[in-house]
Automatic annotation (TrEMBL), chain B:
InterPro entries: Spore_III_AC (IPR009570), Spore_III_AC/AD (IPR025664). NCBIfam families: spore_III_AC (TIGR02848). The lineage of its organism: Bacteria, Bacillati, Bacillota, Clostridia, Eubacteriales. This is Stage III sporulation protein AC. Keywords: Membrane, Transmembrane, Transmembrane helix. Signal peptide: none annotated. The chain crosses the membrane at residues 7-26, 38-57.
Length: 173, 67
């Protein structure tokens, strides 16, 4: 009886934890999209107003931005700074492909970032500004979608985890 | 009465749980999954009582001598 109780509690806690992890992903994605937006604003300031070269701009943005996404900028800086013959677009894509798995961002966000890289750093200021405006619009759209998804799924994941745990325990008893 | 009362309580618990799950899923706009959980609940309960049902049928058969 005693062992049974303990294992039932373990099962419920485990499934509840799984539910919480799933719901945490949604919260985290929204947060990271917001941070990404801020980082792009920083990058725009660096490029348009301070007129820094891209590697230096990337380095400074990487220092200032959130810990989950700073690696994208830091890696781009490292690749560009090591001067091993990557173009900016290739460096940007490589940094995104290496680091996106560690964040909660999904493939749609990745597409937006890669599209952004296609115009990064080889046209005049006006075009750069347009490019940034486009990214802002897309990121705002993604934020809205992420918020809706969070509203829809966060509570469901949490309660579903606990309830499925209880169901397993009842069936096993 | 050979059947333990535990089974009835178990089935009742599963019923309550499935109805709560149903509500949660419908509230978050997933009617299809809600339907699936209901079906899964029914199947689980059926598996629990299938032994008893088959017992009942054999009893009926022996009662009317239908071998």
């Amino acid at each position: 009886m005693f062992v049974k109780t303990i294992f039932s509690i373990i099962i419920i806690v485990a499934t509840a934890a799984i539910g919480y992890i799933f719901s945490y992903g949604y919260v985290q994605r929204l947060q990271q999209l917001k941070n990404l937006y801020l980082s792009f604003q920083l990058l725009e300031t660096e490029i348009i107003y301070s007129s820094n070269p891209l590697p230096i701009a990337m380095e400074r943005v990487g220092k200032k931005s959130n810990k989950y996404i700073c690696n994208i900028f830091n890696d781009t800086y490292k690749i560009l700074n090591s001067k091993i013959g990557y173009s900016i677009e290739e460096a940007w894509n490589k940094a995104i492909n290496d680091n996106l798995m560690k964040t909660s961002l999904n493939n749609e966000d990745k597409e937006i970032l890669i599209d952004f890289g296609k115009n990064l750093g080889f046209t005049d200021k006006e075009n750069q500004i347009k490019n940034f405006q486009l990214v802002y619009l897309q990121l705002q759209k993604q934020q809205k979608i992420a918020e809706q998804l969070k509203m829809k799924n966060e509570k469901m994941c949490k309660s579903l985890g606990v309830l499925i745990g209880i169901a397993i325990v009842i069936v096993l008893i | 009465m050979n059947v333990s009362v535990d089974l009835i309580f178990k089935i009742a618990a599963i019923g309550i749980l499935v109805s709560v799950l149903n509500q949660v899923l419908i509230r978050s706009g997933r009617e299809e999954q809600a339907m699936m959980t209901t079906l899964v609940g029914i199947v689980v309960v059926l598996f629990m009582v299938i032994q008893l049902i088959s017992n009942l049928f054999t009893t009926v058969k022996t009662m009317f001598q239908l071998y």
